[in-house]
């Protein structure tokens, strides 16, 4: 229901029941260090215990930097006693217009809180307006776009505060644990502070292919197939042996470099590409041009077909092409988000040019050759000095110790007579000749 923190080998919450490999350890530790969550007298946090509406309200209120103050006004909730430990919390929230009860004038403080309830309360206390949020045709499977929580859950999706389970579902009725509420608060605070969505690429694998001009991150449960000119990032479906076909619960990104044979500019290339999409898919393909760093890019999305394609115009005038595709199962909506995050992680890279080897003057090379005549096993060192040499004749009988080869180097206008088996240069002559 809520994405776990990335595995963290450094952080380990100072609670006896929150091990370093707990799914939400980073969220719990960060909030504890900030003084926003506390445990029990026995040193535990009880991360997997369900959390009530009253407890969640108290934690979220504190995390938002709001101090609970008890006033003389009475709460309208018939099921909240005046001496309840959380009375001032609910009173503060109610008087701020942030907490509302049910139509029967109850608050149900002891009920376990659900994800939509916790999310709405958190956004409210953090003063985040969802009034202008556009709700997509599908938020995630399990979330009703007509329900009271729709805009708030769409915001949570946009900011990577929530993701679906492995089946692609966010259960709006499922109750939350203390650790999950900590994770929600942690993600919301992080996104609010940074001004951008929570980074779900933590723990992803980073790989690069300098020859094809890309460096990317991809999810740890995806696979990577590297080819000479074409590569594939692939989320395998159950019983799916290879990536050549998209299954409803799978996804893939193929990556290729297309030679821009006509040397079109980025504007020309993208214009032609958009025309091709329009011809093939009419108004179903939605193009968007933008910059990735200083590189011109074109992204074309087609929700009906489940595709997101990305074109990046390279400095050498070729084009890096990503074909992203995701299946139609409920998990497809999240796989689509993962594809977009892979694209967002793109960095341009290239293979550095080879450092040219220093050129030794011909006079020095010839002097070295002369110095090593009749010295055994020197040919392996001498041969590289004359890269244009060509074998033009062989005396199979030789001098009794094996074949004798005759090489001619046009650069030096010299024939080299070589005893092959011992690697010994027997002699050299000007011009191409085997008359020694």
Could you please describe the fold and organization of this structure?
This protein is α+β, with helices and mostly antiparallel strands and 436 residues long. It folds into 3 domains: 25-194, no CATH class; 205-344, Protein Transport Mog1p, Chain A (3-Layer(aba) Sandwich); 362-430, no CATH class. Helices cover 25% and strands 19% of the residues. It is built from 10 helices and 13 strands. It has helices at residues 25-33, 53-63, 87-95, 115-125, 150-158, 178-194, 266-281, 332-344, 362-371, 379-382, and strands spanning 205-209, 214-218, 223-225, 230-235, 251-258, 286-292, 295-302, 307-313, 319-326, 390-395, 404-409, 414-419, 424-430. The chain has a 7-stranded antiparallel sheet with strand order 3-4-5-9-8-7-6, with helices on both faces. A 4-stranded antiparallel sheet has the order 10-11-12-13, with no helix packed on it. The chain is elongated, with a radius of gyration of 34 Å. Mean pLDDT is 92; it is low at 7-11.
Domains, number: 3
Query: Can you give the helix content as a percent range?
Result: 25-40%
Sequence of secondary-structure elements: HHHHHHEEEEEHEEEEHHHEEEE
Mean pLDDT: 92
Proportion of residues in extended strands: 15-25%
The gross shape turns out to be elongated
| N-end to C-end Cα span | 86 Å
Radius of gyration: 34 Å
Oligomer: single chain
Structural class: alpha+beta
Total helix count? 10
What is the number of beta strands?
Answer: 13
Strand order of the biggest β-sheet: 3-4-5-9-8-7-6
Low-confidence stretches: 7-11
Largest sheet: 7 strands, antiparallel
